[in-house]
């Protein structure tokens, strides 16, 4: 199955050095959700923009979410569904339930939904992510019915880690595509 990727950045958008932007430029069948306000996220606005973007999809698609956007995807699935969404790669979830792990501007995304997601998914966590403990990421993964992959000490799996095209993430994406096929 040929799939499209829908890149869904988190708080602040993905900077130029972020693997999501490298994937956007590298893969042929990729698009991105663009929020109106990247720095003061409002859950309802972000869910609405995600839904509007997903409504335009007419081919099998995998959601590729980072940080706050992983929580956004879980919220979106509480209300919406789309037969073209075949799976989700959920990288470095942000623990919006924990004031010591996330900035106040993200707390309106709390509580984090804990229902199983309606499609196959993989949560990718890091042992030294400042925005969510590995144990909490594993717990969310279990609640969401997702597979979980610990990639070691890669911080928040963002541009600060200089991951470039993040080949390890591409291998994880291939695992998800195999699971869907």
From TrEMBL:
GO terms for molecular function: hydrolase activity. It comes from the Bacteria. Keywords: Hydrolase. Pfam families: Ser_hydrolase (PF06821). InterPro entries: AB_hydrolase_fold (IPR029058), RBBP9/YdeN (IPR010662). This is Alpha/beta hydrolase.
């Amino acid at each position: 199955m040929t799939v499209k990727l829908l890149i869904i950045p988190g708080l602040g958008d993905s900077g130029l050095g972020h693997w999501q932007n490298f994937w956007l430029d590298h893969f042929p069948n990729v698009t991105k959700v663009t929020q109106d306000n990247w720095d003061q996220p409002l859950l309802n606005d972000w869910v609405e923009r995600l839904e509007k973007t997903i409504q335009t999809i007419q081919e099998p698609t995998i959601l590729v979410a980072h940080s706050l956007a992983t929580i956004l995807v879980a919220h979106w699935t509480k209300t919406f569904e789309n037969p073209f969404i075949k799976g989700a790669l959920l990288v470095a979830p942000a623990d919006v339930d924990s004031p010591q792990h996330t900035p106040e501007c993200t707390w309106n995304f709390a509580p984090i939904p804990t229902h199983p997601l309606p499609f196959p998914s993989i949560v990718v966590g890091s042992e030294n992510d400042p925005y969510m403990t590995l144990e909490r990421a594993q717990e969310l993964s279990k609640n969401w019915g997702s597979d979980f992959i610990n990639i070691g000490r890669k911080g928040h799996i963002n541009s600060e880690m200089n991951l470039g095209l993040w080949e390890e993430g591409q291998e994880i994406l291939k695992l998800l595509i195999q699971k869907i096929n």
